[in-house]
Amino acid sequence: MKKVFERPQSLSENCFHYCPGCGHGVAHRLVAEVIDELGIMERTVGICPVGCAVYAYDYFECDMIEASHGRAPAVATGAKRVLPGHIVFTYQGDGDLAAIGIGEMIHAAARGENFTTIFINNGVYGMTQGQMAPTTPIGQKTTTSPSGRSISQEGNPIKVCELLNAIDGPAYLARVAITSPKTIARARRCIRKAFEVQLAGQGFSLVEVLTSCPTYWHLSPAEALAYIEENVIPAFPLGEFRVPAGTAAPVAAHAPA
């Protein structure tokens, strides 16, 4: 019998600790599949965040480094400069990247550091019981915005791709979702493109992945995916915001059909 689906070699056999319906498992698999396809596992270094994915080093078979909260871009900068022939990526959530680590990220992107960031955006602090994050959409209820985030009280959410697109350093910026086979396939293509940008030495690349936290959204996994489609994507449009010079123009931001 022909095998058509199997665990990527770059993904360990350890069982994920994530909650049912969490998107981290899908995102891990996509990254691992791309590493396998490109044949770079033996020279890839991943940087773990502080947050729900703090144990990412248990799931990837490539070399992994645990960074202090928000400092993954600084660690990645050091790793890439010391090992310029290696492929370096950070894997960060919205609290790690967009709150405590926003300064690190902006300056690494502005410098055009040649590493890749996989940014998991579920709009909530999942590891510490559901507080509002910098990317929590307007109206979303959290433990620290029980009536729903409002512009007057908590301000607007930070849109990371749009923020980084305002500076000159990044080479590739994209926002994707993992809500259906169609969006997952597109996310995979964008993640691969981000790694290819690094392989070509073109500079900093980031893929923002919109995903869910059913536990602290207080929704079933299916309801959480519908919530992304109906409420999150309209606030955080999908698309490629920046591509390297000389390549195809960015795909316009849009909501999935």
Q: How would you portray this structure in words?
A:
- It is a single chain.
- The chain has helices at residues 24-38, 72-82, 94-100, 102-111, 151-154, 160-165, 181-199, 214-217, 221-235, and strands at residues 44-48, 63-66, 87-93, 116-121, 124-125, 131-132, 172-177, 205-210, 239-242.
- The protein has 257 residues and is an alpha/beta fold.
Rounded mean pLDDT is: 94
What profile does the largest beta sheet have?
7 strands, mixed
Question: What is the CATH homologous superfamily assignment?
Answer: Thiamin diphosphate (ThDP)-binding fold, Pyr/PP domains
Lateral arrangement of strands in the main beta sheet = 2-1-3-4-8-7-9
How does the overall form come out from the CA principal axes? globular
Order of secondary-structure elements: HEEHEHHEEEHHEHEHHE
Proportion of residues in β-strands: 15-25%
- Subunit organisation of the chains: single chain
Structural class, from helix and strand content?
Answer: alpha/beta
For this structure, the CATH topology is Rossmann fold
Q: Supply the CATH class.
A: Alpha Beta
Low-confidence stretches: none
Number of strands: 9
Query: How many domains, as an integer?
Result: 1
Helix content range of the residues, please?
25-40%
Q: Supply the CATH architecture.
A: 3-Layer(aba) Sandwich
Supply the number of helical segments: 9
